[in-house]
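Good morning,

Both structures are done.
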Amino acid sequence: MKLLVVVDKLLTGFDAPPCTYLYIDKSMQDHGLFQAICRVNRLDSEDKDFGYIVDYKDLFKKVENAIAVYTSELDHSAGGVDPEVLLKDRLKKGKERLDDALEALPLLCEPVKPPKDELEHIHYFCGNTEIPADLQEREPQRAALYKATASLVRAYANIADELEQAGYGSADVIRIKQRLNHYLNVREIIRKASGESLDLKPYEADMRHLIDTYIEADEPRKISPFDNMGLLELIVKTGIADAISKQLGGLKGNKNAIAETIENNVRRKIIKEQLNDPAFYEKMSALLDEIIIARKTKAIAYEGYLKRIAELARRVAAGQAEETPKALNTPAKRALYNNLNQNEELALSIDATIRKTRPDGWRGIQAREQVIKAALFDVLRDVGEVERIFPIIKAQSEY
């Protein structure tokens, strides 16, 4: 929710930590006024430590009086935290925050190797695509980048229309805007390179339901069937050339940066789905390693690389091998087949056993999980195999 119009309620006894601005267009006083302005003083993320009051009713004197009355009742005894409520110069404080944010991001990106282009940023924040664990291990650096960029955007937005009044010269204003655009671009590149761009596709049905239920509008006209698709899905649906053009155009044809972005997206999908089908995704991981080495050693031409990585992306997105028997018509059956030495009869037998014996709400409840393990043992006759296969079964949503 970005905007909330309040007539009477939600001015007292109501907490919404993300709320940063309060626009007052009604007369209030004393305790009610103080409670209302306190709607914006709740801490949210670490980049919010105060809120803004936009006053259309000239209530500033009343605000001062309300604060004076409130603070006079506070405990000022020694040894406690200072309970004073302070009114601060908005522009001065805003400039301090913007300066701090502008200083934090260059420090965060300092370890990026020269010439600090897209590829060097991808290497620092996403790691080496040849090392499967690198992408996950670099997650703290990416989280710090996203957080620092969000702080910069918020600090800039708070005084964007008053930069000169805050004390910045015209050259400073141009420099700040350039820095802001630069780090927004870096953040977007890293999000795409790490596969962390928000894919809205899974939420489409819910969003459409909300719109259809609560918003009256003409029937929407769909311009493209590929909006809100992730990079891998786009590669599968439109081909790798169109996917690069649509989602990676910002990399300006940097072949290595484009390659590593695609590789990281494939790697993220493999890591995410690994527990569902370890055997299949281990095979896919090995194929990805093979392709990366071939690219880096220039054993294949770039066009050949794109063809191979596109084919791998298609297989990873599909989550199954082409030669899988038709009887294995669900992800769970295919996972069992892949992890039982491609024994179709055994996979179907275990699938039927689980569907027959599983208790309702069995996950996380030891006694109910033991029922499934006992049924598995009757089929597998091997405790070690039961313990190996059980986590795969537990990861299947259809069970």
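Second structure follows.
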Amino acid sequence: MKQIITVILLLFITICNAQQSYNIDLLDHWTDTTRLKGAENAIFSDVWGFEYHSDNYVALGSTEGTHIFKIENKKLIELDFKKGKFSSSQVQHRDFKTYKNYLYAVCDEGASSLQIFDLSTLPDSIHKVYDSNQYFQICHNLFIDTLKAKLYACGTDNQGMKVFDIQNPIQPQLFYEYTQNYVHDCYVTNDTAFLNCGFDGLQIYNFESTSIQQLGLLDFYAGQGYNHSGWLTKDKNKYVFIDETKGKKVKICNSESLIDIEVSSIYGTKNYENSVAHNVQIVNDFAFISYYNEGVRIIDIKTDKPKEVGFYDTFHQSTAYKLNGAWGVFVFEKEELILVSDRQNGLFLCHFPIQLYRNLDTTTITSNTPFIDENSKLIYESGETNPLTFSIYDLAGHHVYLKETLNDWITIPLTLSSGAYVYLIQNYFGDVVSHGKFVIGN
């Protein structure tokens, strides 16, 4: 029967729930079961992604050291492995950050050290250029304020936090030692540091000089647990943090006034009373959260009532322990790629259509109305000389078609199954110039 294509200018998507995933596609999965196993058969810990010479790379921690990958053709290619100063089944946590062409690595167990690796020989390998316990042995987390060339080392030797000047990237110099509270993790931008201080809550300081200044404090709030980690939106208007405590929800704060910072909304999964959130990264208005035992969760935080727009469950083992499974998350925004590290199951590479979901609810896009003609052509009269990118997604968020063209139209492939689809048109600079919905029927 002849196909009939109807344009429907409704800018929302009807989602079909699935047990393992929702709007997220698995692209690749890597693991190595030969590595030393700790309690609960845990091997892996945190993950960090970075770009070098226009290619995307990954650092993953394990009980034994640092694994380096390249993402190529949406696949994970392991390039190198560097052993940690302390390599043992007792290792539960390694953390990584990058600055210029260097990777910084720490471990939170044993006779460890700060390690620095030179990335300039990628994609062949990386080279260790610094390995010292001069300032500390163990460290829980790192954060680098790239604007000010400062490295924040949290929970050093189970004490507060140490701040280093890394203007010379391979010769860290101690700048300040913070001893007011134990700092579990932090987020820092332009000397403003959001410190996650466990049961002492959230502390906000300015570290421009060694005469540090407190900017804000949130040490008592509803649903309080162990203040674990957080992330700031790019416009600095919202701050999202995790309480690493069973039954505690994710907190979203209005951060425009640091002095009066408070929790403005909360989010929890359907199983939040029996689950624990762990780490978070914010891209646009989406919070990407690694939930122990429940995989990665994507939360739209644009509105006062956060809503879940995607998830992928990495952990299917049966366990009573609530701190297994998904540990870390990292997002490559431009490529719409998500990295998730799972303590038992390794590294997952996924796709989520960030651009599509970012623009579904907006009413500010102005353009000539696209339409589909009798020849199944999607038309957009741009008048531009630069190429356009046409994307088509099914209603589960799967990317089913992609074409870059200098034409103002594409022919919708007749291989698409009957059903409803969403189109997204981007200009040469990646801006969304139009989007909509159409239906293919028999």
